[in-house]
Structure formats: C-alpha cells, structure tokens
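hey all, quick one before standup. I had two proteins in the batch that finished overnight and I want to keep them in one place so we stop losing track of which output belongs to which input. First protein below, input sequence then structure tokens straight from the run.
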Amino acid sequence: MPGKMRQVMFGFVILVVILVSTTVDGAVSRSIMKQINEINKEGHYLGIVVPNAFEMDPLLQSPSFMADKRIPYLDFSGRRFRIGRIKNGKVIIVMTGLSMLNAGISTQLMLSLFKVKGVLHYGIAGNANPKLQIGDVTIPQYWAHTGLWNWQRYGDGPDDELALESNGDYTRKIGYLKFYDFNNVTERAEKGDNLLNSVWFQPEEIFKIDGVPEVRQHAFWIPVNSHFFSLSRSLEGIKLEGCVNSTCLPRKPIATRVKRGISANVFLDNRAYREFLNSKFNATAVDMESAAVALICLQQKIPFIAIRALSDLAGGGSSTSNEAAVFASLASQNAVTVVLKFIALLASK
C-alpha cells in the first residue's frame, strides 16, 4: 500500500476510535455534553424525582409546568430528564422506575449531570398509620431503608453476637423482627419455634462527598432538609380531592407532617408486618424508593424532602383487593397538588 494511502487510512482509524470512545461504554458523547452544558448555563434547578409515569403525568399535564422551548428534555442512560419551569422556578424532572436501585441510580445521574440545588421526591405510598386514611398526603421528617438485614442463625437469640458484628459490619442497635412472634396459632396447636428465627435491621454504609474516600460511615434514619421541612408546615390545610367518580372517602384528605417514613424493595400488603413497622419504628408512609433518594442526597450534601400520598392501608381494607387499585389516581393527584404548593412556597422565599 502506498505511503500516502497508509497515512490516510491511519488517520481514518484514529478518527473512528475517537468517535467510538465518546459514544459507547457509558461515556457522555460530545453532543450530549453540549446539551448538558447549555442546560447548566441557566443556573441551578430543583430536581424532581418521581417513581412511575402515573405519578408523574399529573405534574406534566398541570398548567403550572412549562417545558423548556429550547431543550425540553435530555435522554441519557435510559432516563429522560425533562427541563422546564414550575411557578417561575427552574426544574428538572426524572422518572426513576420501581425500586430502591432505580431511584438511587436516577437521583445520582441527575446530581452528577446537572446543577441541582435541591431534590423533591414525591409519589404514592402504603399507609402503616391507622390514624390516617387513604388520600392523605404525608411529609415525613425522617426516612430509613428497612430492607437491609442480618438474618440470624437458628438457635441464636438477642444476646448472641451477629455474624461479622465484631468487624463493625453489622449491629444489634436498631432492633430485630422475630418470626416466632408471628406464628399462626390455633387453640389446638401450641406456639412452637420458627426455623426462620430473626432478622436484625441494619444501617446503610455511606460515603459522603466531603468524607475520606473508601472510609465508610453508617446511616439509618436520614432527616429531610430542615428548611424544607419547616416550610412544609404551611401545606397543612390545603384542599385535596376525596372522591374517585362516585366513590368517596369518609373525610376530606389532609396534608400532614409525620415523624417517619420507610422504604424497602417490598410491596407491602400484609397487616401483621404493617402493624410491626408502625409499632417498632413509628412509621407512616411505606414505599420502595424514598429512602434511596434520601441516601444519595445525604451523601452528596443536597437538600432533600419527600412527599408521599397514601393510596392504601397496607394489608388492610378489603380481603379481596388492595385499595391502591381504586385510589392510586386520587393519591397521585393529591401528591401533585401538594408538590405544586410546596414549589410555590420555595419560589416565594
């Protein structure tokens, strides 16, 4: 091959390698990076993180939301980040999908790609607090992930050290669930032992952005931002919907601040576990995403709050169906109503 031709071919190969290296293997392409820079030129945004489409759609369809005319959305890594304004405030909205993993990934992507000044997470949730009802909107002060366990071996009890506890990997400080306490006992059968024994709730390992890399800290109860929570007091008293077609709730739903919400990769439709979570942790809202968003924001030092509307009494109500099938749409709309009011409060301060 003539020398000149070899030089041309070599240059072509280098160009292809450069182009490929910026578009595959999870890298941010030049065109995407250009759009991200254009979006970030507009300043800092309020990040809005939503689990599912039926929870997000009422917000997108609200006249309060105005999509950006230049870059209405940016697609990256399987997520669509919608750019716009609500109540004159700049927002970026992302739908995460179900579960702790998806919520954590989506939140981290948002915080890594864009200039975000705070995160507002919202959606529907199961209710573990019998004092509240379907349709009520809760704003918990603390969130925890209750799905990280150390499952204790059969025969050991509360006074026995857990596996790897001495290494600092696990703890008995938070408490446990003993399966023996939930045996189904009849008059003719004694309450025997249970081979499942006990599970001990564990804190998450976290690595803060201002901490020493690879030096872990632990967190179980994650507080929402104190300013956001104080501001949310003004949401109590807001008017909310109480009927789905001709089916109406016993009273008008309310927005209320509560002490605690919990998350795990479990759809909770069991009365016994719901009552345990309420008595053990004083939990109200029970969902599958909020604690993941809280943990990411804690590590990244970003102000965070979650607003969750109650769609069902977890494991309660009808013996044939979960109330969420009827009231999910109402709960979603009530959540959005409170979210819009909260964003208006933020904009006015």
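OK second protein, same deal, sequence then tokens:
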Amino acid sequence: MKIDHFDGLSDELLFLIFSKILDAQSLCRCSLLSKRFASLIPMVDSVLLTVPPPKSKSKSKPNPSLFFNFIAKPLIQFLHQIVLPQYSSLSFHSYENSIHRFSSEVLKKFSHITSLRIRLPRHGGELGADGSGSLLKWEAEFGRELESCLVLGAISSRKSNELPRIPKLDDSGLAADELKLRVAWMISCLLAASARHSLVKQIVVADNLIMLRNLVIEDGSKQGRLSMGEDQLKELRKRVKLQSPLERTKLPAISMKLWYAPLLEVSDSGSVMKGATVIVIRPVDQEMMKIKSDGDLLACAFHGDVEGEGFCEAVKDLVKEKKPYLMEMDSF
C-alpha cells in the first residue's frame, strides 16, 4: 500500500507551500491532483500569471531593415509590441482579447487574489534585443487614467570594461534629431502602457478579483511595467463598465521633464550610457490626483527590477547632474 506523505501535513503547512509557488498554471495543475489540494489552492492570495505567446499560422517574419531607421525605429517597435512581427496576422484587438480570455480562464480558479503579476510574452522587438546594446526602460502608474510614467533610455549601455576607451562627446545639449528620437521613445512607452491599461479594465470587473489590491503587468523582457495599487484599482472599478468595448486608454494632455547627457558613467554599476535620457511624464491636470512627487518617483525608480539598482543609480546621477528640458503634449 502506497503512503501519501502529504496526508501527514496540516492544511496550514500545505497552504504555505502553495503560496510560495506563485505560478498560476502550476497551481491549477496541482489542484487536479486531489480534492484536498483543490480546496486549498483557490485561497492563494498572490499569483503570477505568465501569458504564452499567441499562435500563428504564418512563420514568416518581415525584414526590419526595410523599415527601421534612427528616428522611426522606436515607434515601429511599439507596433511590434502590439501586433508582433512573427504574429502579424493578429490585430491589436484579437491579440488583447486572446490575452483576456486566457487570463480569465486561469484566474477564475482563484477566489482570494490580493496581489497579481501578469507577465506578457517576450516578442523580440524590444529596443536592444538585436544585441546593439541600446536601452529603453519604462514604468507607469495608472488609476482611471495615466498618473505618471518614468522612461530611461540610452543609445548604448555597456560595462566600462567592454569599451577600449571613453571618447569625449559634445555636451552642448540635444540636437533636433536627438530630441525627435526621445519623443518617439516616450510615445512608444506611453502607447504600450495605455494598451496594457485596457487589459486591466477587463480584469478588474471579474467577480473573483474584487479583493485585488496590487496589480503589475510586465513583459518577458522586462522593458516596461504598469502598476496599480489598491486605491487606483478602486477608482478604476467605479468607472469601468462590464460590457464596455476594449479600447486603448486615451492619454490626457501631459507635461514632461527630460534630462539628457551625451555620456553618463554610472560608477557603482560600472556602466557607461551614451545618449542617456530620463523622462518624467505626468498629466497636465493633476490637481485631483493623489500621486507621487517627482522626488519620490525618481527615488524609487525601477525598484523590484533584477537590474533595478543600476538603473535607479543612473536615474539619480543624471537628474543630479543636469537641468531638465520642459515640454507639453496634447492628449492622444
């Protein structure tokens, strides 16, 4: 007679084990093993949902060299994030709907989720994925609409020991083409964030997620991260309708502060960034919003990221050394 060693474990200990697993699909598979497991797993309150890449009938990929150039590249990369070059037959709505169907099917098995992290598939179109050493990172906070967005970018980012020598670059400021590139970075990040917010609208209305207090949506390459806390989720629930059409969240008129250095040496991490750029983005009309100050936003930049310490240091160094450019943009 076989002995089930799990029988010797208390429900409390089993629940603690399940709570450490995090991965939603693994937990769902565990719930199929026994009625006891099936009764405990729905009570897990912290879950990571990894979304698989969409299936495609076509395996052909477009030649990016026909389209990419120095200024347009970031915007085209955003389109790759939504349409995906290897899944070009998929529209924005069909892809977003497929993510929503998958997440709903998995998450309906949980009834007490308070913290949810959703990881979207890596698609290969991210800036720097081609081995060029370029960098683009962003993180955004939303309530019913955009509250803040922080962007860190660089034409190249490498360890100082990988460079034969560090050339002296002109520090006269941003040229017109360089400014256009950074505006393109900013727009691509904002559009990606607003597209993820449209997915959040579908998630928060689910009956089994009324206890949700913390939500993060990131991509497999960890280029961008959207986060929402308890108050922001409550605010969104009041305004979203169950049967509302799936649309990208419209971005309000925004103000921007942009810091730039042609060359930034980050001493502690040993990195050298060429064309280093930090952008803080906020709604122009933010009087009614409870949002972080610029100082708080910059101080906690990219915390929780595997490489976050080096990125946070780069943000602090650049902001400390340079004066910002100020810009505004209409809603879109």
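Flagging for whoever picks this up: The longest strand covers residues 254-266. The chain is about 35% helix and 20% strand.
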